[in-house]
Each structure stands twice: as structure tokens, then as C-alpha cells.
Amino acid sequence: MLDSRVTSRSSRSPFWLGFSESLPFVFVVTPFALLFGVVSSEAGLDLLQTFMFSLTVFAGASQFTALQLMTDQLPTLIVIVTALAVNLRMAMYSAALTPYLGQAPVWKRVFIAYFIVDQSYALSAIRFEERADWELSDRIGYFFGTMVLIYPIWMATTVVGALLGTAIPEWLGLDFAVPLCFLAIIGPTLRTPAHIAAAVTSIVMALLLFWLPYSLGLLVAAVAAMMVGARVELWQAEART
């Protein structure tokens, strides 16, 4: 019985494998997007503005950050820089996936860049490392498979949240989706001492630097975590030689 399940799983096309492995994220992305729609409505954005915000940015954490700063009427430059800082991890995701997807045609890389989010990266990074036998087409298929359900759900649920606005009762506690989503993403990726060191560093630094204005503590914490993670990887490499 176990052998048949393994065979069935391995024979599934990469695209549909990505689709199936993205299903658990639906349960956290849906309330996350719904919450953004509600918050956007409360901040004064109309339905079209909310939809275009998600369409052009498509990065939940940055969207929430930018919206909060806009509500506080901070300078536009501060809003943009802070949102980019929060989304700095996407550059790291892109660099990590380049060895696997970097040979794709330019037009496909454009779409890949747009769809690099926490969920697609976390799933792809793990699966690409495990399936060294996959061809480029397999990896591309898997990557887009992870987004074929998540993306339309994010867009549609954002609109639903904006339409419902304050009609959604507070007792539903939609804000639980934000930390839950990131915990679901980060947990499976903490597989090496370097990953764990980077995660602990980012947490400690973010807590220590919470007082910095414009959420700059997050940017400093991210840079520090990258440096610590890289240093631990170097130590490990030196220890093996």
C-alpha cells in the first residue's frame, strides 16, 4: 500500500504536484486576503483601488505595511522605502531560485518574478532540492502549479473583504491569518543550523529595534539575519574540509 502511494505521488506531473502541495495554504491565505480587503475599505480605498493594490503589488506583508503608513499620512518616499524593505526577502528568494529557474525564457522569468511570494518560494525551494532529476520544464511547471490556486483566491478574497468591509464581525479574528501564514511557511524550511541562526537573529533584532521609526528595525533585522546565516554556512563548510 505504501509503495503504491509513493509511486502515485512520484508519477504525478510537477504542475499538479505543485497545485496539490499548495492546498494547505488556502486556509491561511483566504483570511489574510479577506483581512486586507477589510482594512483597505476602512482606510478609505474604494473597490477598484483595493483590487489594483493587490494586482500591482501582490505581496501581503508589504501591502499591509504600506497601507498602514499611508493611513498615518507619512511621506510617500517613506511608504515606498519601507514597503520595499519589508519585501526585501523577495530578492533573496529570487537569488535562491535562480539556479533552478534562471535558464527559463525571459518572458517566463517575468511571470516567475511576479509570482515569487512566500508560498511559492517555500514549496519550490524544498521540492527543487529534493528532485534534482527534474528538467527545467518540470521546475517551471511545479512553480506555476503552486500559484494557480493561491493567486486567484488572493485577488478574489481581497475584493470580497473590500465589499464586506466592517460587516465582518471582529470575533472572527481574521488577523490570526498573518502570523499563522508565516509560521506555516517558515517552519518546514528551518532544516539547517544556518536557517535556524538566521531566524533567531531576525527575531531578536526585530524585538530589540522595535523603537526605530518607519519600521526600519525590520530592515536592520533582515540584513543581520542574512549575515549571521551566511557566516554559519561558512563555518559549516570550513568544518567539513
UniProtKB/TrEMBL annotation:
Pfam families: AzlC. It comes from the Bacteria. It is found in: Cell membrane. The keyword Cell membrane applies. One of its GO terms (biological process) is L-valine transmembrane transport. Keywords: Cell membrane, Membrane, Transmembrane, Transmembrane helix, Transport. It is a multi-pass membrane protein. One of its GO terms (cellular component) is plasma membrane. The chain crosses the membrane at residues 15-39, 51-71, 77-98, 110-128, 140-164, 171-190, 196-225. Belongs to the AzlC family. This is Inner membrane protein YgaZ. It comes from Flavimaricola marinus.
